[in-house]
Amino acid sequence: MVSDATSSDEMLPQADDAITRDGKTLILAYDHGLEHGPVDFEPNPETADPEQIFELATHDAVTSVAVGKGMAEAYYPSYEDDMALLAKLNGTSNMWVGEPDSAVNWSVDYAADLGADAIGFTLYGGSNHEVEMAEEFAEAQEKARANDMGVVMWSYPRGQGMKSTTDPDTIAYATRLGLELGADIAKVKYPGSPEAMQHAVEMAGPAKVVMSGGSKTDDEAFLSTVEAAVANGASGLAVGRNVFQRENPEEILDALEAVIFDEQSAEEALEGGTAPADD
Amino acid sequence: MVSDATSSDEMLPQADDAITRDGKTLILAYDHGLEHGPVDFEPNPETADPEQIFELATHDAVTSVAVGKGMAEAYYPSYEDDMALLAKLNGTSNMWVGEPDSAVNWSVDYAADLGADAIGFTLYGGSNHEVEMAEEFAEAQEKARANDMGVVMWSYPRGQGMKSTTDPDTIAYATRLGLELGADIAKVKYPGSPEAMQHAVEMAGPAKVVMSGGSKTDDEAFLSTVEAAVANGASGLAVGRNVFQRENPEEILDALEAVIFDEQSAEEALEGGTAPADD
Amino acid sequence: MVSDATSSDEMLPQADDAITRDGKTLILAYDHGLEHGPVDFEPNPETADPEQIFELATHDAVTSVAVGKGMAEAYYPSYEDDMALLAKLNGTSNMWVGEPDSAVNWSVDYAADLGADAIGFTLYGGSNHEVEMAEEFAEAQEKARANDMGVVMWSYPRGQGMKSTTDPDTIAYATRLGLELGADIAKVKYPGSPEAMQHAVEMAGPAKVVMSGGSKTDDEAFLSTVEAAVANGASGLAVGRNVFQRENPEEILDALEAVIFDEQSAEEALEGGTAPADD
Amino acid sequence: MVSDATSSDEMLPQADDAITRDGKTLILAYDHGLEHGPVDFEPNPETADPEQIFELATHDAVTSVAVGKGMAEAYYPSYEDDMALLAKLNGTSNMWVGEPDSAVNWSVDYAADLGADAIGFTLYGGSNHEVEMAEEFAEAQEKARANDMGVVMWSYPRGQGMKSTTDPDTIAYATRLGLELGADIAKVKYPGSPEAMQHAVEMAGPAKVVMSGGSKTDDEAFLSTVEAAVANGASGLAVGRNVFQRENPEEILDALEAVIFDEQSAEEALEGGTAPADD
Amino acid sequence: MVSDATSSDEMLPQADDAITRDGKTLILAYDHGLEHGPVDFEPNPETADPEQIFELATHDAVTSVAVGKGMAEAYYPSYEDDMALLAKLNGTSNMWVGEPDSAVNWSVDYAADLGADAIGFTLYGGSNHEVEMAEEFAEAQEKARANDMGVVMWSYPRGQGMKSTTDPDTIAYATRLGLELGADIAKVKYPGSPEAMQHAVEMAGPAKVVMSGGSKTDDEAFLSTVEAAVANGASGLAVGRNVFQRENPEEILDALEAVIFDEQSAEEALEGGTAPADD
């Protein structure tokens, strides 16, 4: 019997401290140029310029920026005092037509040299490349631990044999994979309902869960989903298109800050005003 | 002629001492979240919380807890004085639809750093990945030896060309693979009869054999099988679902302790009372 | 907020300085003997002799010569004071009939020992070998950084599932891959129109874009395309056949110098005279 | 001209001294539990116990025992003063249904640490895994040389495209592969006739050839074949089933000693009496 | 401009000095036991004995002997003062039925330890294994450079999609691959005509070209081809069967010496007398 064990939250290595604030997280992800190509910048062409995004990431709401090696090399040295870096280690263009897979584009040591605070790594559970990806994740995870970096798993079941990539059971399995394999944070798609979100969060145990923003939706639908996710245990959000494809990305960041960190409702947040200004 | 060779038991490196007691073993396995997903926790939802299991593992009957890297990182530091750690090195989600395979999610050195006493490694004999898995096992086994850690093989023939994964010949071959490849303990499914169990144990020579608990069955059927296994030479049991899917997992651990360590019959054990209390 | 960030050009590591002049670049590429075989030398048989090309590369317009290991070993020691070396690390004969792939024929360390100033690396986005090639690129890129060498990506989407390898969207994706994966310069095919070229350049952000010369065309068509590329943001040209398959390769280099470095029109350049002489 | 070269036998590194006596060899092989499973022990169930075999291997006739890592770990420390150890490095269960392949279950360095005098390595010429296996053999062979260990190749052509695995041309090719690739001893099946055996031995040049015992046959047939093999140049025998599947394994070892080391005929050896007693 | 560059021959690293004489080369190749099996020794059975070949290789005409690791280990220590060793690193039996491939049977470091002066490496351009083989070649080539060893490429296009392995374009491509990838010498089949030979030699630039002897032909045909090859720029010959399958191998070596080193015609060489005696 361990009498001094209080809560499971205390047990997990606090390796993700650098990319969370008060246990909450808002990851601004910007690897779309690799994963989807320039088409994702069409709704708001200025956002093809990475500097726009790094500027956005200085917003108080953002607890880390998730980018690939090329972006980090070119921009992070100028912004390292302003934001935490989540080094997205693997990724592949969508010209790839094979079973879901992701190239490891970045070594952990090199990411650490650039000042990264955490690593991000995609695992496609159910893909014919799952075993290979899990082994690549394992190696990166241990190197991250050696460098005192946090570990975020993009846990995205897909591939041969997966009928749905977002049903509640799949997402609950996805968060659990994060815990079982040694991630501090599992990033998953919203499983469709508050109950399913709550279940997925429980399955992650002491690991945190962040909702993936996904394709752009309207303000109300988007914020309501984030509100539901956070209300049901999610530690926050990883978001890209739902911020930078908007006309006014700072406004939605203000609203997200209100929902995630200030526990406002989506409705309150949309009414604005109460969100802290970006200083 | 070697005159001072007395029994084969003395010849085998006693590398598994840390995870046995009086030559007997009860492994509490908890890698179901990885191998099967949250569905395994549905019969007893609280057991999705790893802390419940680590608490259970403080029961006197348990000689080691078998978990993956993420679990060990999050919980073992709080429990290391209370139980031995069997680091389950490889494993894969059941979203995988290819020939049976298992990702190596954990390096032996990292497991040793976390205080693991032994490694656990799955080998799917007969799978198209058998050769690759055996080579991964070989490397892990030698690193375990270098770290004075015991070696437990989850010896599970399955895959293309295997008509049955539990017939007596298959299980006897499975335990033999453990001996031939350098495991201290071979974990196998119950081969269906006392005679088959005895044969499988003989084929393991000086290596120990533990029965795999498998899917949940009723108390009497389960304990009778364990009794038969132990009576026919098995050194004990590796169990997960047959403990944590029960309403009262501690009760079944009490009964298992009686059967495995105190050589009681299943019937006696079910009548209880004589089993030592969990202090 | 980062107040002292002025232009994105200042952010990118200036690792390509050694192979550019005033931010412009003209790469004389000569790996055709590997990629296409001797057939490419038929229009001007003397150019099968590498010495002819290395002599050509002493032309003022040329900012680097891109060759494979064998060429560099045999000739670069005699020319190292006269030109920068762009070590083309991977390449494969066109006898290869599988999905597009490219063998890594040269280690970065060996290239550095020979005095290379930058590496060149082909990535076939969309090929079934894309993931493998990207991982090879990643390793080479980091070793190049450790050796203070520039990185040029031959970003050539092709393979299963690619309907076109030159349409505007594909080329824009190709330049973006260069930026995302950590190249200083992305070498791509001309996307067919000034607007598409401009878009592709924008997608590369602070990374430079050079147009690939491609098959030989007539002087006016060729120079007009180069003019259009440069006018729309390309940093220059990587050229082989359009130089060495001509009767008078020095003349076209004179004209290219005028277009790329002196911002003359193709028409002016063809009229000649104003181009600086090759000293 | 090399005047002092006398016989080719002197040229070959004498790395196999430790596992031969007077240039003759009798390898007691006991990897059947891995390669075939417990079924091989059914004719003489006691032989499932490795200790029985290690005791047998103390017989004067036996020049080395060939076993896998698990066996060597468990028993060789007790027998290292009584016999030479031939570490059988690779092997695979017959549950494997793919093209012939063999997992490398043992590193050479680990085998050396355990006191092995030589390595044994299977090569399936003609298998779709031939190239991979040859490369694994090459690495093991060089490490064996660095450890002053002998090298025995189980040279067994089989797999796609092999019509026969025992015809004279195949066996002659098999022994030659042993010589060409750097084995000290090639272990092959009997090619069916004295002439074919002689030819196969010649093709091995200075490398030794040992006949593989194969499935159990009657005493006369077995010993006559061994007699024919030895009379035609074979250095001896590697035997398992034809010893341990017999009722009285020591008797057949007595007879084999007479045939292999004392050059008796099979008939003389069967009449017994003249064979030295096992002390 | 490099004024002191005189001839391209001076630029190439003279790494092949140890296996040439006056810029000419005659490689006695003896890897047939691996590549083809004992069938190649049937025309002259004594040549199955490697000692016969090593004795032959002491002939003045021979500038190196090309053998595999097993041969070199067993014989080269006795002959190292009499001949240069060309370590044939890769090779595979013709029992292999997959796409052309070749196992790397020998590490460069081990070859260097045995006193090898150069490495030999087969590349099957056009095979589905071309990329893999080229990468293996690249690694071996760089290690050879580090050991001051020459590099000979057996440049043999074959495999899926190759209609002819000897047409002039294929052979010209093959010699060019040698130059591009960093070989000192490219070994190719005779392309069928003097003009084609000359073209292939030109495509190799400063790298030398040696003709592969191929299957046995009659004296006049064979020597005439060698004469034509040398007259058109080949640096010599790599020969096996056309020497050792003859009744009197020394006689043909005498004649080859006359043709290759003394620039005699085939007719003159066949008349003999003028060839220097083997001392």
Word description of this protein:
Five copies of one chain form a homopentamer. Chain A has 279 residues and is of the alpha/beta class. The first copy, chain A, has helices at residues 8-11, 32-35, 50-56, 69-79, 108-113, 130-146, 168-181, 194-203, 219-231, 241-244, 249-260, 266-271; strands at residues 25-29, 64-67, 85-88, 90-91, 103-104, 118-123, 150-155, 185-188, 208-212, 236-239. Chain A has one domain (17-271): Aldolase class I (TIM Barrel, Alpha-Beta Barrel). The first copy, chain A, has an eight-stranded parallel beta barrel, surrounded by five helices. In chain A, strands 4-5 form a two-stranded antiparallel ribbon. In chain A, strand 2, helix 4 (69-79) and strand 3 form a beta-alpha-beta unit. The C-E interface holds C 31, 33-34, 37-39, 41, 48-51, 54-55, 58, 68-71, 73-75, 77-79, 82, 91-93, 95-98, 101-107, 110 and E 1-2, 5, 8, 11-13, 125-126, 128, 130-132, 134-135, 137-139, 141-142, 145, 157, 160-162, 169, 172-173, 176-183, 199, 202-203, 205-207.
